[in-house]
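Q: How do we represent a protein-ligand complex in a form that can be generated token by token?
A: Start from the inputs.
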Amino acid sequence: MACRICSGRLHPFADFGSQPLSDAFAAPGDPAEPFAFHLAAGVCAGCSTVQLLEEVPRERMFHADYPYLSSGSAVMREHFESLAKRLLTTELTGPDPFVVELGCNDGAMLAVIADAGVRHLGVEPSGGVADVAAAKGVRVRKDFFEAATAAAVLAEDGPADVVYAANTLCHIPYLDSIMEGLDTLLRPGGVFVFEDPYLGDIVERASFDQIYDEHFYYFSATSVRGLARRHGFELVDVERLPVHGGEVRYTLARQGARTPAPAVAELLAAEEAAALHEPATLRRFAARVAGTRDRLVTLLTGLRDQGARVYGYGATAKSATVLNYCGIGPDLITFVSDTTPAKQGRLTPGSHIPVRGPEAFADPYPDYAVLFAWNHAAEIMAKESGFGAAGGTWILYVPEVHLV
Ligand code: SAM
Ligand code: TMP
Ligand code: ZN
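Then emit the structure tokens for the protein with S-adenosylmethionine bound:
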């Protein structure tokens, strides 16, 4: 196994066994899911990048029926709106600025840019969600971003002031092609801003469910600085974000174009002090995860044996790892409630638990609910305050199994 970035040697540290595609919600009666892959992660001895050991072909994951909608969370809608407003007042103030978003999904960010009348383009391969963005007035190109796409966009629209990607770069194994594309597309003084789940938070919180097919990379300041430098860029800013269980927003500029903010050196030093990329640190993370699995299965089995009613909340892509790694099926969780239309009436991948709309959750409330969308806990617990009032208990498994 060689590193996808530098061909260095990978130290495997976590193994979740055979897994289905995390977003393949089959309809009841559909033929058995034919596709499975080996979900395991390793760290590169050469460039410190944490990555999956096996790559799932992109067309299997990102296609017309890709179900995830960015705008499903009010907190995320606000998050993208505020980022768009910030870009409009900082990077996009020149004459006729142009911003490109990779993985614009349903347009949560670019709709704000479109409303402001600023030139933009979303590059989004998943046709269904791209249509939702287009219906909001967002200009979308239904395509995977890569070097050739960048050249085509440059020819059509000219250079970009900003390229932005949220929860998308970590989904893309072929970063050489992406970096080449950025070099082609960005203006000399332009920036690439992207945000993804942060390795430091994953390790600290033992949030092992961040590891699934679509999340190919688990970035840190250390690995991103290395990636940038390999391609003539520099990491010039980092910002910790509270969303999705802890992320970092990285800003890359061409080497020498901007002075790195002090936050970069601070985060690099913190990663060094925490020995974040050491195989021993990552193996300790994996051992904690095995403990979480054992405690969660013991809890749910005990509740079933007592006759308690247990539902799941949020049919997240993350939950595929939890359910399949722990062997949790419909005998332990009756159904999972989720607001996403394309998931409702279907079954969770591999574990075959029915997914139902949120109205089913309160009809009647269960005794316990496993909060798979724990990254949206504040929003969901506020919305479902009736559950606690009715005597219901939330089950969380990050950073360890606990009841709320
Ligand atoms: N940016 C949104 C957000 O943060 O909510 C959507 C994130 S979603 C988890 C990942 C998105 O990346 C999907 O909509 C997928 O279709 C898109 N994607 C995957 N590979 C891509 C590529 N090579 N270029 C552009 N988008 C891609
Ligand atoms: P995410 O953690 O990848 O953003 O996925 C969140 C999932 O949870 C998504 O399928 C939508 C669902 N969801 C609800 O069902 N209710 C909610 O209130 C929120 C915020 C999300
Ligand atoms: Zn490497």
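The pocket of zinc ion (ligand 3) is lined by residues 3, 5-6, 8, 44, 46-47, 49 (CB under 6 Å). The CA atoms of residues 5 and 176 lie 7 Å apart.
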